[in-house]
Write a structure and sequence with these properties.
This protein has 224 residues and is an all-alpha fold. The chain folds into three domains: 1-29, no CATH class; 77-118, no CATH class; 121-223, no CATH class. The chain is built from eight helices and no strands. The protein has helices at residues 2-11, 15-43, 60-74, 79-101, 110-118, 121-141, 148-183, 199-218. Helix 2 packs across helix 7 (148-183) and helix 7 packs antiparallel against helix 8 (199-218). The longest helix has 36 residues, at 148-183. The radius of gyration is 22 Å and the shape is globular. The chain starts with a helix and ends in a 6-residue tail after the last helix.
Length: 224
């Protein structure tokens, strides 16, 4: 894509070499993703909950695309809902433009609003918390509403920190799925009852991660 070509240009790569490596990457992903997805499907389930996997992995984007594809090929696409969504999207864009003209600190990006509409609540909560942390980091660095360069600089450490969290969570999910599939028991790694920690401990860990993320943002490069 254009971002890849731009990055390659900055480091001195040629387009044909980039396309070659993209092809190799796509081929490698096809070899790796199939067994990984099969492993996750056997261990946790993917998509709608089933009796075998009552807490299956959510796949909102894939579910959305599947619904659109079924509607297109089956001739049952809910055009009324699509029209309502288009009107809501246009209204959000108009409101956001008004905020932009007034140099307001509060904005309503249409993409963020759309993600908030179709993602499940359990996925939206951490995104919302991350947005709040980013807002407090911007206030700490006194980033103005039009200072996009400064915003990118102070967000960079937090983005890298968050990327590490996402990658680590994904790798741990795959690692935990292996003994589940091999043993055939979902509770093979369950802690003994005496060591079973309640939800308050999970909330404490979440607060700790949020504090570390805010701390990483505070140490970001000063704007200006």
């Amino acid at each position: 894509n254009l971002q890849d070509l731009k990055a390659g240009y900055l480091v001195g790569a040629t387009p044909w070499k980039q396309q070659l490596m993209l092809g190799i990457g796509a081929f490698s992903c096809a070899l790796i993703m199939a067994p990984v997805l099969n492993l996750l499907a056997q261990a946790y389930g993917i998509g709608p909950a089933t009796p075998e996997h009552p807490q299956s992995l959510a796949a909102p984007q894939a579910t959305l695309m599947a619904s659109v594809a079924r509607g297109l090929f089956g001739g049952q696409l809910p055009w009324t809902m699509i029209g309502i969504g288009a009107v809501i999207g246009a209204a959000i864009i108009a409101v956001d433009e008004q905020f932009k003209k007034r140099n307001a600190r509060f904005r309503v990006p249409v993409l963020a609003a759309a993600i908030g509409i179709y993602l499940p609540l359990e996925l939206m909560v951490p995104i919302f918390i991350g947005g709040l942390i980013a807002h407090f980091v911007e206030r700490f660095h006194k980033i103005g509403p039009d200072d996009e360069g400064g915003r990118d600089r102070v967000h960079r450490p937090g983005v890298l920190f968050s990327a590490g969290l996402i990658t680590g969570e994904a790798l741990m999910g795959i690692a935990i799925a292996i003994p589940i599939v091999v043993s055939g028991h979902a509770d093979v790694l369950a802690l003994p009852e005496a060591l079973n920690l309640n939800q308050w401990f999970g909330l404490l860990v979440l607060a700790l991660v949020g504090w570390l993320l805010y701390r990483a943002g505070k140490k970001g490069e000063q704007a200006g």
